[in-house]
Each structure stands twice: as structure tokens, then as C-alpha cells.
Amino acid sequence: MNPNGNPHTLAQARRRASLDKRQRALTALTTLEQQGKKITHAAVARTAGVSTWLTYTEGIREHIEAAQQRQHPATPCARTRSTTATLRTELELARQEIRTLREDRDRMRQAIQHQLGQQLDTLDTRHLTERIDELTRNNQRLEDSLQQATDDNHRLHARVDTLETDLAAARTSLRRMIREENTNPLRTPGAPSGHATLQQPDRPAATPTRLRVRRGRRAGRG
Q: How many Cα neighbours within 13 Å face the side chain of 167?
């Protein structure tokens, strides 16, 4: 039997390669942080020699975001925008993972069909039944992985919608506060906060001409 066509062998090889890449990404992140360099997903991927999308997967993304927080603590609004962008990236990665799983499933089905075609004439009924059961279990695991990725995709959609709603509400509240601040009248110096009072205009000072007019009026009444 050709080992390159064995689905179990292929799955093990992919798993080992994935673990190796993830470990290299985490090591690169630690190195960048110790060197005081700016931490980004692209920088980690470049240092580790892996693809950028791998740095957004679960188990690596959290470490990168934590390191970025340690370098530059973010404000609540910035964290909200960052979370929204991260969720959108996770959504796209989930879609890519679904496509990859479907391609793997189709490729394994073709390999299975090819192997069965070669083995039908050499395997007895018992061995053939065991082989079919093994292949069925492998296929079920692939279906379960595909369903899990689909469920994660739906959850990410819901989280993105919720965050966008919260962000819109925060923007509306901020605009309302700015309008209220701009429409409040000037407060008299020393007046308590929250109790604005209008300043009274100063009366013009009495001039000599006005004093003479007032005296003339008083004399006429006398």
C-alpha cells in the first residue's frame, strides 16, 4: 500500500506540521517582545516563517493581542474597534478553514476510492469490512470538524453584529453629549456645576452730563 495515500498518515503529518508552525510563531512572539520590537501579526509571521493567517488562529491570536496590550495599553473604544476587526478576521479564517476541510474531505474520498479499487481483489471480506469501518470513522471525524467550523462561523457572525450595535449606540450617545455641551449657556464664574446662570450686563457708569440732566429734572419737580 502506498503510504502517501493513507488518510491516517496524511492526517498525522499535517498535525505535526501544524504544531511545529504554531510553536515557531509563539517563539517568534517571545523573541520580538524581549527585543522591544513592535508586535504585529505580520511581524510574528515574518519572524517565524509562517503564513499571516496562522497568527490569527485561536491559541496564537490571544498571545499576540496580550503582548500588544503590554506594549500599548488601549482605550475602551480602541479595544472595541480592535475586537471588531479581530472578529472579522476570525470570520474570514473560519470560512477558509471550512473550504480547506471540504477540499481535504474530497481529496480523501478520492484516495479512499482509489485504494479500495486496488484492494478489492486482494482483501477478504473481514479485512474489507474493517477497512470500510475505519474509513467511515475518518469520514465522520471530517464531518464533525466541518460542522464545528460552521458553528464557530455562526457564533462569530452573532458577536460581530452585537459589537457593531454597541459601537453605534456609543457613537450616538457621544454625539448627544457633545450637542448638549455646545447648547448650554455660559455659567457665571463661581456658580455651582450643573446650575448655569446668565451674567447680567453691566450698567453704564454715570457721566457728568447725565448727572446734570438728573439734577435739572429734580429742580423742575421742586
A: 16
Let me know: does 94 contact 145? Beta carbons within 8 Å: no
Helical (H) or strand (E) element with 76: helix 76-119
Mean pLDDT over 122-139 rounds to 78
Q: Are 17 and 9 in contact (CB under 8 A)?
A: no
Instruction: Judge whether 150 and 99 are in contact, CB under 8 Å.
Output: no
Candidates 207, 211, 181, 208; CA nearest to 196 is 181
Grid coordinates representing 45 are: 509571521
The pLDDT tens digits of the residues spanning 147-162 come to 888 888 888 888 888 8
Contact at 8 Å (CB) between 59 and 88?
A: no
Grid coordinates belonging to 60: 496564537
pTM confidence score: 0.34
Amino acid at 145: S
pLDDT band at 14 (very low <50, low <70, confident <90, very high): confident
